[in-house]
Structures are given as structure tokens and as C-alpha cells.
Specification:
mainly alpha; 10 helices; single chain; elongated
Length: 200
């Protein structure tokens, strides 16, 4: 991707994070990126195209990392595979906190974009986690539990702190993008999975 496109995407990500998608104009993005606003239309067909590109790039990068992790862990025990992929998801969200928060905000509003993101990306995320749990159940390593319900709880734990970052800071006195928080969140999710999946 050329430097102009990268500058536009970086500027948009920053402004969307501060002002929200609706509160950010093409002119603001152009000023932040120090480009002519016509270039945003040329490269992305407007603000909506910028948003869609940010989201697609985020999930494409995430799923490439997940695929590489799964290939590396293909012979590992199901619980180890689950632990490593949870760590990857949490750390990726922290590394990309502004886009993570932006996506969660957009998903909280009923829209065509939200439906597309749910269909294209969140379903894939759910399927990836469910597949590991179902493999563990089939191998007799995990208890026979409804995998989708476990995954719903896990994804909720992963995403809520990013959607409600201000509340996490002010009410719980935690910084949701810190390495310390990421380690705590991973450990909390794994304790939940251990309680649900592993025989006593």
C-alpha cells in the first residue's frame, strides 16, 4: 500500500477513535493526513470506503496471524491451542486498540456495515474458537458442553473492555490497553475456559 493511502488510513483511524465515524468528515481526514480531500475519494470512494478498508485490513491481519498460529500448533493439545489463540486475540486487540474500539462501536449500531462485519468476520472468529473446542470434545479432552455458548462468553470478555474503555478506566481503575491488563484478561478467560471445559 502506498504512503498516501497509509497516511489517510492512519489519520482516519485516529480521528474516528477521537470523534467517532459520524463526527469525522472527509475534510478532517484530509487535513490530518495532509492530503487533498479528492485523494480520499480517488483511493477509497469516500469516508465509508476508508472505514471499510480499516476494518478489512484489521481482520485480514488478525486471521493471517491466527492461521499461522494454528499451523504452528496443529499437533498441540486442544487446551494449549485454545490458550495460544486466546493470547493472540487479546494481544492483537491491545496492539490495535483504536481500530478494535472503532469496530466494536460500529457493531453496536444496526447497519448494513455491521451486518457485513458480523457475516464476514465475527462469524469466522466464532467458528475458529468453536472448532478448537469441538475438537477437544471429540477427543474426550473437554467436557461435552455447547461450544457456541462458551465462545459467546469468551468473545464478550474479549471485546467488552474495548467497547467500554472509559468505564473500565473510571469504575475499575484499569487501563484496558496495557500489557498488564492484557495478561490479566488472558488469565481470566483461561480460568473461565478451564472451569467450563476441563473435567474436575
Amino acid at each position: 500500500m502506498d504512503q498516501t493511502k497509509m497516511r489517510i488510513l492512519s489519520a482516519a483511524a485516529k480521528l474516528f477513535d477521537i470523534y467517532g465515524y459520524k463526527g469525522t468528515s472527509v475534510r478532517h481526514i484530509a487535513e490530518e493526513a495532509q492530503v487533498n480531500s479528492a485523494l480520499i475519494s480517488y483511493h477509497f470512494h469516500g469516508k465509508q470506503g476508508v472505514l471499510e478498508t480499516l476494518i478489512a485490513s484489521y481482520f485480514d491481519t488478525l486471521f493471517r496471524r491466527v492461521a499461522a498460529q494454528e499451523e504452528q500448533d496443529k499437533d498441540a493439545a486442544p487446551y494449549e491451542r485454545l490458550e495460544r489463540v486466546v493470547r493472540l486475540y487479546v494481544s492483537f486487540q491491545c496492539e490495535n486498540a483504536p481500530i478494535t474500539r472503532l469496530i466494536q462501536r460500529e457493531l453496536s449500531v444496526e447497519s448494513m456495515l455491521a451486518r457485513e462485519v458480523l457475516t464476514l468476520y465475527i462469524s469466522r472468529w466464532k467458528h475458529g474458537l468453536s472448532r478448537i473446542i469441538e475438537a477437544g470434545i471429540a477427543e474426550g479432552k473437554f467436557l461435552p458442553v455447547p461450544a457456541d455458548r462458551i465462545v459467546l462468553a469468551v468473545i464478550s470478555q474479549m471485546t467488552y473492555p474495548f467497547l467500554q474503555a472509559q468505564m473500565v478506566r473510571q469504575v475499575y481503575d484499569l487501563e484496558p490497553y496495557s500489557e498488564e491488563f492484557a495478561l490479566w484478561l488472558q488469565a481470566s478467560i483461561m480460568r473461565y475456559l478451564q472451569a467450563c471445559l476441563l473435567p474436575a
